[in-house]
Every structure is written in C-alpha cells, then in structure tokens.
Amino acid sequence: MTLTLESIPGSSGYLDLFPDRRMSYFSNMYVLGLTVIAGIGGLLFGYDTGVISGALLYIKDDFEAVNQSSFLQETIVSMALVGAIVGAASGGWINDAYGRKKATLLADVVFTAGAIIMAAAPDPYVLILGRLLVGLGVGIASVTAPVYIAEASPSEVRGGLVSTNVLMITSGQFLSYLVNLAFTEVPGTWRWMLGVSAVPAIIQFVLMLFMPESPRWLFMKSDKEKAILVLSKIYDIARLEDEIDHLSAAAEEELRKKKTVRYLDVFKSKEIRLAFLAGAGLQAFQQFTGINTVMYYSPTIVQMAGFQSNQLALLLSLAVAGTNAVGTIVGIYLIDHFGRKKLALSSLAGVIISLVLLSWAFISGSSASSSGVYGWIAVIGLALYIAFFAPGMGPVPWTLNSEVYPEQYRGICGGMSATVNWISNLIVAQTFLTVAELVGTGATFLILAGIAVLAVVFVILFVPETQGLTFLEVEQMWKERAWGSSCNTESLLEHGNIS
Q1: What is the rounded average pLDDT for all residues in the chain?
Q2: How far apart are the C-alpha atoms of 476 and 488, rounded to whole Å?
Q3: Residue 347 contacts by C-beta under 8 Å, 6 or more apart in sequence?
C-alpha cells in the first residue's frame, strides 16, 4: 500500500476529505481519562518542585545542622533535581525497552518509596536520600507521560492532550502552595508536606494497572492484536481501519530496519540531529528564560520588591501559581488551533516585555526614595510574565518533544531532551540568587530577557510547525529539511549513518 498525504489518518488532507472523522478534545472520554491518569505523573512533578520551598522553613527548625548550613539547604532542594536528571536520562531507555506503562509504574514505586523515606527521615542525610528517590521517579515520569499521551492521541488534538500533562504540572505547583498553608499548624509539618505526595503516586499506580500500553509501542513490538484492541476504544470503525493500516505500514518499515538505538546514534543521523536540536533547544530555553526562577523564588522576588510580610509574599506567590495553571488551560486550546511555533513566538514576545518591565521596576525602585510604586510594578511584571509564559513556552517544548522524533528514537531522544530540561533547571535554580547578589536583581532579569531574545531567533530558525501532522509526516519533514525537498519518501532512518 502506498501512503500519500491524503491517505494518512489524522493528516490535514485526510481530515479535509473526511471531516466527520475529526475528533475534538472532549469527544472521547476514554482518551481523556487515559491522559488525566498518565498526567498524574505531571502532578507529582509540579508538586515536588513547589512543596520544598515551604517545607524547608520547618526542616530548618527540626534539624539544627540544616539551619546552620546553606550547603545542606541547597542540597536538600537540589537533590531532587539531580535525581530527575538521572531518571530522565534512563527513562528514555526504559520506555523503549519495557514500554510506557511499565515505565510509569516504576516511576510511581520509586516516587512512593522516596516520599515515605522523606516523611520518616530521622536526620537530614536520610531526607536527602528520599529527595533523590523522589527525583528519580519524577525524572522517569517527565519522559514517559508526554510520549504515552501523544502515542494514544488523534493527531488533530494531540497538542491539547499532551498539554494537559503540563496543566497537571502547574496544578501540582498550585496544590503544593495550598498544602504548605494547610499543614503550617499541624505537628510534624514538613513530614506531612513531603509525605502526602505518596498518595497521588499510589493512586496512579493502581489506575495504571487497568490502563493499556501505548498502541504504537505495541505495534512496534509486534503485538498487533492488543494494539488494535486499544485503537478500537479511541477511533470509530471508519477511521480505525485506516489507523491500523497506517500503523502496520510504519511498524513493518521499522522492523525491516530494526536495530538497537544507542545514544551516539542520535548524533550520527542528520535528520535526528536536527530534530534533537529543536527539541532539546526548546527545553533548555524553557528553563533559561526563567520560569523556575519565578516558581522557586517568587516569594523571595516579592520580598525583594519591597513586600516584607511573609504572609503577603506567600499569598502573592499563590496567585502566581494560580495564573500559571489558568494560562496552561488557555494553552491547551491554543496549541491545536494556533500552532506550536506561533504560540512559542508570541509567548516569548510577551516574556521579553515582562522581563524588561521587571528589570526596570527593580533598577528604578533601588534608586528611588520610596520603592512602593515600583514594588507593585514588579508584581505586575511577575504576573504578566506567567500569563505570557504559561500558554506557550510552558506546554510547547513538552508537546514538540513528544512528536518530533521517529518511533525508533522517540524514547531515547525524549529522555535526552528531558535531561537537558532538568540540567538547565538545576543551573537556573542554583545560580539565580547568586547572580542577583553579584549584578543586582534588575540586571539579572535583563539577562533573562536577552536569553529570551535568543530563544526567539532559535525558534524561527530551528523549530518546525507540527500542528495537525501525523508522526509519518513529521518524519518526512525532517528528511526534507536534511536532504532537500526533492528527496524520496523512504524513511528518514535509511540515512541513519550519513552525516
């Protein structure tokens, strides 16, 4: 069978011919349920990044060694990021070898063990071990959830469904602020804050036992019968036959060229290099434009702006987290209607304006006799930053990384890109306060604005538009970018060792 653009299920040509087969975000509750269950991993991701800022205040009260050592405090915070780097790096291989479902179950087990160890930690060093395990679980989940959701999603709503995982991340961050407030007067405060995260991990583990494996992964592992059973719950009979034909053809081609993909193979193929550059570059710019600077240090930034009340700083930070979650909901709609590339560019334009406003507020406020007005301008800049970032640069890097790689490379490249994200996250989290002390808060935000300008150039030059494209069409697009539009329609992996 020869696959043309018009014959590929989910492609724009196919859906123009059969508009009645087009699906919407809410048209299939099975797919939406699968997305939400897989997205609990994102909830854990977001909760863990947010909860430690409040818990650390009480950990210092319980452990004098932590209170007297900035290094121990930094280690407790950053050890989860170290674990996430390792988890993301190994998560791609685990996904390819054992499947998306087993990778999710493993992440839940590791995360739950870490949460229990943290809650029961008798000293800071056991607590650090628990943070490492939690980070490992989060790292594996950060790779697995977007790929699992993308491979079970109709292409016309794939962006919105993958972005739901980002909504779960931002919801987890918002939830962590609420939990921090809820447990402030409870004995064993920080133990409850950290230990309660085991509950959603256990819930996801139980629910995932009843969830299917990714149909695309099953096809690639020659388990066609199970894959068809899953697909039959996603598509109606008319489109189901076309999807099966499409996946069968793709699976046969992959099996014909089957080889064990290693990390170095990613850099041997020109097409895969281009795809990885786009995916990993977006992940790096997501962090280096300052999002986790805002999420980790928003109470500190608010106090830097002149609002010394801890309670007010926490409430304003809660508002920032809420804006982040609401903005992500907007992104879920826009990403499949506006496109990934346009959304990223418009988001970055707003981020640049917001960072310049923040920089101006801090520089002007530091030289004014009264910084009250500039303090409020800084808070407005902070809110605008989140409002622009959340719908675009929040979901776009994760969505793009779930769809720009061929099946054979999807797990390993997704894992490598997520690792880039976590390393960038660690660098930003560990350097923001130091840089702010050295050059000033206003200058630091100006540096971030400069990085955002570089991100705009990067997106224009290297990031393609993948809205509404099938995985096969994305694969062909990279082939044309690497070898020219006159190249034939053989799989891009034919040139696997050509550079």
Answers
A1: 84
A2: 9
A3: 388, 389, 391, 392, 393, 394, 396
Residue 428: how many CA atoms within 13 Å on its side-chain side? Answer: 26
Q: How far apart are CA 41 and CA 226, in angstroms?
A: 24
pLDDT at 3: 46
Sequence letter at residue 415: G
Query: Whole-model pTM?
Result: 0.76
pLDDT (0 to 100) of residue 299: 65
Residues 6+ apart with CB under 8 A from 33: none
Whether residue 30 contacts residue 234, with contact meaning beta carbons closer than 8 Å, is answered with: yes
Helix 100-120 to helix 29-62 angle, to the nearest 10 degrees? 20
Q: Please give the torsion angle defined by the CA atoms of residues 348, 349, 351 and 356, in that order, rounded to the nearest 10 degrees.
A: 140
* CA atoms of 268 and 498, how far apart (whole Å): 7
The C-alpha atoms of residue 431 and residue 51 are separated, in whole angstroms, by 20
Q: Tell me the per-residue pLDDT of 370-409, one tens digit each, with 9 for 90 and over.
A: 556 777 888 888 889 999 999 999 999 999 998 888 878 8
CA–CA gap between residue 409 and residue 214 (Å, rounded): 15
Structure tokens at 234: 């996603």
Query: Could you tell me the two tokens for 221?
Result: 């592992």
Nearest CA among 448, 369, 385 for reference residue 377: 385
Residue among 193, 178, 197, 196 at smallest CA distance from 57: 193
CA 409 vs CA 96, 136, 236, 363: distances in Å: 8, 22, 29, 47
Over residues 110-136, the pLDDT tens digits come to: 999 999 999 999 999 999 999 999 999
DSSP for 66-122, please give it.
Answer: HHT-HHHHHHHHHHHHHHHHHHHHHHHHHHHHH-HHHHHHHHHHHHHHHHHHHHH-S
